[in-house]
Amino acid sequence: MKSIQYLSLLALTATPAFAQSNPSQPTRNEDGDTIVVTGSRSGEAVPVKQIGASITVLDAEALETRQTRIISDILRDVPGVAVNRTGAIGGLTQIRVRGSEGNHVLVLIDGIKASDPYYGEYDFGTLIADPEAKVEVLRGQQSSLYGSDAIGGVIQYITLTGAEAPGFSARAEGGSFGTFTGGLRAAGVTGDLDYAVSGSYYHTKGTPTARYGTRDVGSDSAGLSAKLIWSPADNFKVTGVARYSYTDADTNDSENDPGSPLFGYTVDSPGVHFKNKAFYGLIRAELTALDGRWTNAVTAQMADTTRKGYTAAGFDYGDKGQRYKGSFESSLRFGTDGIIHRLTAAVDVEREQFQNTTPSAFQGKRHTDNVGLVGQYELLVNDALSLGASIRRDENDRFDDVTTWRAQGSYSFATGTRIRGAYGTGVKNPGYNELFGYSDGRYIGNPNLKPEKSEGWEAGIEQSFGGNLATIGATYFDSRLKDEIYITYPAPTYVATPSNRTTLSKQRGVEVFVSARPIQQIRLDAAYTYLKARENGTEEVRRPKHVASFNATVFSKDERFSGTITLRYNGRQSDVAYTDPSYIPVRVSLKEYVLVNLNAEYKITPAIALFGRVENLANEDYEEVFSFATPGRAGYGGVRVRF
Q: What is the pLDDT of residue 118?
């Protein structure tokens, strides 16, 4: 919604639900099928081929061969996803799925709801890649499983368990723009304890982000993660997750002198930066009975975030937010070998609270309580037909209670063809900054906002060749959003404030993907999205009509060498510019661009590997957000050790 965009830019210019997935589950099942935990509240991992919704998995191999350091970069390879970063590494990064807003995407990190409780969305600029991790991207309205936020879909970042990726690894890398990155991981299984501990660090002196500036905008980001799974009995286990993230990133203001020809443009702003700290924690106890067919789980989780912005004169703005959540799930699987039923019931109890620490008359603490009741039914017939339905009732002490639902199905033919479809509804509660945010003379929140509501459907077809050596698929989707929150400028003050639209916003499009592994030495992945997103009849900003990517990795026969080429195309897109002294936005057009990356790795020994990459090989000059310049060609190299 524009209030998020506006406040995010304004801050720059003026100065994680665990029961919802089970991170102890593996990546593949015994048959080698890719399995996911994001598509069901049962706590069981489900093969992708049995899910009627669109879901993409970026596995650990993809992250490694593409030498992913910033998770938002590899999300550009997912159908239906658009990425916008405000200039340099560490800058505010928004992910939009199927034309929805950045705060319409629910983000989970190892099952923990990770969005900032104050802003109501997750800043992907703070998420650097851990060694041995994967990403699941579930598209479409998923509020019947997850409640508020899951309008465009759900993105879950998962660190692998000790059983999946045992051993010790270390990585060190350096390169252009004064960049250094590093990563450590220790994982394994000892007795009845599965453990995985990892840490990552990213430092860069940065590059200029003002079109006509010279100030290098750098950042420091760190992440620490621990996952422990204790299984004292075959039918009982306890999972604990802890994660800490820290980002200290420079930013540039925009010119605020109405007499300057650069008014509203990004300009060098020495001393301006922000700090973002977050701690996430989760503990889950799971008990199975009836030979593993009945699972009961209790989960407690929390997120604690702090954001502070500074100018050369000192502290400028900030906020604190906490989320506490408890869940209970009970899932029963029954039937025969050919017909399997699964019934799941869940209860989520959640409190979000925040404190606005910006020096103003609008400081204060507030909170919202929500209780969600979930019911889900899943049916699998002869490993070919899968049907599912879910319904959720959310009772909220600040907004009207709401019921959301979803139905989906998939059928696989013996010819390798699979057809699937889904219809669902979604809801997004206003964020605290939209309700109560304040920026003197420029923005004031609206406590009377209503939640946004969405409904939509999708239909897809996939064809596999040669026993899954290659798969091609296409999906059509169509969504409607009502009560959309947007920015108004009411007389007589014309100070920006959010309001609900009375008209519909519409999103529809086509997603296409190709995935192939014709031989062990070659891996190919490609994606394309066509999107038509309209807000009150006008093209939505930061949603290009065309987005595409292509990745090709070649391995030597002894697998000591690998090389990857990545091409990412982003079509022309609209944006808003605050170049009018009234702060009423002006619509601008950002040109299309293509980014080319080239990666290579060579294993000197089974334990030691050298690697390198070139990013933006063609030295493309482009902008993802109006007047924020981006890095040019860059080279990096390093060493990895594994035992």
A: 87
